[in-house]
Amino acid sequence: MSNPSPHSTESLRLGVNVDHVATIRNARGGSFPDPVRAAQLAEAAGADGITAHLREDRRHISDNDIERLANELTAPLNFEMAATPEMLKIALKLKPHAACIVPEKREELTTEGGLDVVNKFNQLKPYVNSLNEAGIRVSLFVDPEPTQLDSAISIGVPIIELHTGSYCEKTGLARGHELQRIKESAQHANEIGLECHAGHGLDFKTMPSIAAIPNIVELNIGHFLIGEAIFGGLDSAVKRMRALMDDARAKNNGCTRA
Ligand code: PXP
User: Fold this and answer.
1) CB 91 within 8 A of CB 131
2) What letters, b where the CB count within 10 A reaches 16 and e where it falls short, cover 223-243?
3) How far apart are CA 17 and CA 39, in angstroms?
4) Which of 81, 68, 71, 75 is closest to 36 using CA atoms?
5) 113-141 pLDDT, tens per residue?
6) Catalytic residue among 60, 145, 200, 218, which?
7) 80 among known catalytic residues
8) CATH among 3.20.20.70, 3.30.930.10, 3.90.226.10, 2.60.40.1930 for 13-252
9) Is the minimum distance from the CB of 60 to ligand 1 under 6 angstroms?
């Protein structure tokens, strides 16, 4: 199919994930540093949205954090959640702008792979239905596999987020292969009418090739930006990421920036 969908756009949004501000806060308990303050700073520095993952074990973001992020920000909140009754109840109460359903295992260090929408279709469907009915923009975090995208469109979500973790972890030819899978999946998403986001593990070096993919309209980046903030401040880290994203996208559009 060659018809351009409404999602084929030149603009690229940056969602800043503030989970690891809470990780640092929780290392000592108390209230410093505050993820809401970081979110406000990220927004002022050029973030288009804020993402936070309330994990079942509350290892970083707390219930109070997510409530404050939902109520105190002007930027749209993307609530990352596992498909569990507890998380659905919180999403329906807080009504964030968007919710990204992610797989979650207690023992993992981070979200280690995408959702298996093909095999968990019946399990995920009621969650997607309830979030859709509440007017929340639902996305599914999936590996760059066309079959997962086909299931995502059948289940009724408007958006998928492609997991860029394998691409970031690999080097050389293997990374090139992962990049190709992401490009093909982004194109497939566009052809079947899914809005395409991407994220996980992105930094100043790995992000530009992803930002250059025209069918991707949003990147969600956390760990690297919060780590980089230790050295040069969050304002500078977000501004630099934003500028590099815009450059990568502009080059891909054949424009040269002044
Ligand atoms: N997107 C999703 C769905 C995620 O689960 C995460 C990690 O919480 C990210 C993006 C951001 O990944 P990172 O913190 O590695 O930038």
Assistant:
1) yes
2) bbbbebbeeeebeebbbbbbe
3) 8
4) 68
5) 899 999 999 999 999 999 999 999 999 99
6) 200
7) yes
8) 3.20.20.70
9) no
